[in-house]
Amino acid sequence: MGLQGRATTAEAEKAPPAEAPADENGAETRITKFRKHLHAWWEGYYIDEPPEGRDAPEQQPLTEADKKKDKWSAERIKVAELIWGDGFTFPGGADHVLQMVKPMTLTSAKSMLDIGCGLGGATRAIAKTFGTWVVGMEASPALAAAGMQYSEMAGLAKKAPIQHFDPANIEFPPKKYDAICLRNIFSNITDKHRLLVQVEKALRPGGSMLVSDFAIGKPGASSPALSTWSAAEDHPPQLCTLDDFKREFEGLKLDTRVSEDMTAEFRGIVVQGWANLADILQGKQVDPGEAAALAKEIKLWQLRLAALDSGDLRVVRLFGLKKTSGGLT
């Protein structure tokens, strides 16, 4: 897949910045606490702290319940972008995504749906690089709102709009898109089949579908690392296996071209992101809200890596084409 940003051994083992001194009263500063968390992450453990957010499909109404359950605060968004790059809240920046969608042969004559787009960094990169009309859809109201602001500031409000949507209830028009990308969506919903049916329906004959998501290593996996990670996520993960995904593709009459475990490559991207963060923060100050959000992200990613290393949590990729005859329409 040519994933970008694979960490070298030297980079992966690079030590975090030195700790800042205590304040004049001897109390530990926020930046010192953050650096302790970062250092702990590098060493393989974490520190417990006391608890402290072209025509697009019709925008789904946003309820107060949607807003309340959203875990993406402004501070967390800023921290995520600091780690993964402007416009990104998850590992894999623009270069990685552009390489990943290369088999879709995107052009200015094609339209695309980017589901699970976060802040829309990839959505905008695809629109700018290929001229494709891309609609980004994101389940987090906060990320969708911020992402749309970014698209407006980039002059891409029509070419790469970002919308909030409910993956459990979305309805797509038939045969509308030439390509559909789904990232980190299926692991958060129970009824995966319904969303896949909707996506396949929205694809034009000959169109391409790309899925990248967390998966479970084998049915019934229940290691302590997997259970601890699952409890720490914003929403309890609903995992299936790579084989489950493949069977769904086959049931929808999609011509599966790629189905692979990309965990090792994904892990390299994660480690590189944290190595880059250590360099970025050296000699810099972090305000209290951002320091608290950063400490939580460090802990979450430490748990994610532990689950990946256990073998029970995997990252998978599938790519398929909609057959020109048969299948669901």
Largest sheet: 7 strands, mixed
Count helical runs. Answer: 12
Strand-pairing-aware structural class? alpha/beta
Rounded to an integer, what's the Rg over CA atoms? 20 Å
> CATH first level: which class?
Alpha Beta
Overall body shape: globular
CATH architecture: 3-Layer(aba) Sandwich
Name the CATH superfamily assignment: Vaccinia Virus protein VP39
Low-confidence stretches: 1-31, 40-53
Amount of helix: 40-55%
Mean pLDDT: 83
Q: What is the CA–CA distance across the termini?
A: 30 Å
Q: Let me know the number of strands.
A: 7
SSE string, helices as H and strands as E: HHHHHEHEHEEHEHHEHHE
Task: Name the beta content range.
Answer: 15-25%
Overview of this protein structure:
- About 40% of the residues lie in helices and about 15% in strands.
- It has helices at about 10, 30-45, 65-70, 75-85, 95-100, 120-130, 140-155, 190-200, 225-230, 240-250, 265-280, 290-310, and strands at about 110-115, 135-140, 160-165, 175-185, 205-215, 255-260, 315-320.
- The radius of gyration is 20 Å and the shape is globular.
- The longest helix has 23 residues, at about 290-310.
- It has one domain: 3-Layer(aba) Sandwich (Rossmann fold).
- The chain has twelve helices and seven strands.
- The chain is an alpha/beta fold.
- β2, α7 and β3 form a beta-alpha-beta unit.
- Strands 3-2-1-4-5-7-6 form a seven-stranded mixed beta sheet, sandwiched between helices.
Please give the structural blueprint.
Layout: H1 9-12, H2 30-43, H3 64-69, H4 74-84, H5 94-100, E1 111-115, H6 121-130, E2 133-138, H7 141-153, E3 162-164, E4 177-183, H8 192-202, E5 203-216, H9 224-232, H10 242-251, E6 254-261, H11 263-281, H12 288-310, E7 313-322
Parallel strand pairs: 1-2, 1-4, 2-3, 4-5
Antiparallel strand pairs: 5-7, 6-7
